[in-house]
Amino acid sequence: MGRSDATALSDGDAALVEDLLAGSHRALARVITRIENRAAGYRGIVAALHEHTGGADVIGITGAPGAGKSTLVDKLAAAYRDRGDTVGVVAVDPSSPYTGGAVLGDRIRMASNVGDMDVFFRSMSARGQLGGLSMATADAVKALDAFGKDAVIIETVGAGQNEVDVVRTADTVAVLVQPGSGDDVQTLKAGILEIGDVFVVNKADMDGAERTLAELEEMVHRRESPTKGLDGGHHGFEVPDHPDDGTDGDGEGDETVWTPDVLRTVANTGEGVAELIETFDAHATHLRESGAIESTKRRRYAEEIRTLVRSDVGALATAEIERRGGIDALADSVRRRETDPYSLAAEIVEPIADCVDDGEL
């Protein structure tokens, strides 16, 4: 398949891509800025980078505020560098209601890695776009991957649905919980449990650490039991008999199921960081050797395609609404009982549907 007009590269953007692939940190920073701002031509840039991706281990770090994610990410980056790996960090921060930028974007972070050009840190925000944060994050990860980073870490500021969507960009997801946070552990049961490949009790030198560890171990045990009504699947590791879990569908191949580890760390001192990286490496190896990484990528790309198509079709529909006088004028016509929302929606979508039927879209 050739590249469409929407992803065609200008000469300047082609040179920017070439510079990034040649190892220019300045070009990498410019590309990620273009991605975050959804600036003209960014799609062509990301499309050109796609064939150069696939070499990085992508790790997501999520959990409730106060769990110590930033400190742990700092120590993880330092540990990766100590063993000779290059690192990219995308820190997903909340959007400022005034500027649209990352509220925490200017904070002092990655203190252990200041001045190290092989640790690239970038703070990102949603810019007020629904669903835009997860797409922008995924595209930034592609840029870092294509650049040649060995490990790319995605850090989210919280553990809500937006952050869950973002962290799904990662191949391996670590969920952080702090000791004594009973409410946080209960919250995990409502959704975050399903996305974790590793559960980490950070600040494990605090009171209540052993109890929190025990609670998480019990939750993982329940997750692994289909009779408990919990979906144990994540990144291709479903419970047995799932057709996409690396088994043959008849219950064989239980060895391909990844059982999440529950680890303890003290990020301030670096305690447990080496063991955590070993677990990340083990999960990455497990994904590759079981073949589950392929089904993981297939599902991820399928969702990315759906998201992009929904966005593009929505933009076409918005343009048709404006051509008809704008949404307020259409709403007034409904208010005056001249028409109804269903009829208007059908009229707006009809020209798009006609183009699809004619093979022109």
Automatic annotation (TrEMBL):
Q: What are the boundaries of the region Disordered?
A: 222-254
Biased composition range(s): Basic and acidic residues = 222-245
Entry keywords, A to Z:
Chaperone, GTP-binding, Hydrolase, Nucleotide-binding
Boundaries of every AAA+ ATPase domain copy: 55-290
Q: Name one GO molecular function term.
A: GTPase activity
List the SMART domains hit by this protein, alphabetically.
AAA
Database matches in Pfam families: MeaB
The record's section on InterPro entries has: AAA+_ATPase (IPR003593), GTPase/Isobutyryl-CoA_mutase (IPR052040), GTPase_ArgK (IPR005129), P-loop_NTPase (IPR027417)
What family does the entry list? Belongs to the SIMIBI class G3E GTPase family. ArgK/MeaB subfamily.
The cross-references to NCBIfam families, in alphabetical order and at most eight, read: lao
Q: What is this protein called?
A: LAO/AO transporter ATPase
> Which species does the entry assign this protein to?
Halorubrum lipolyticum DSM 21995
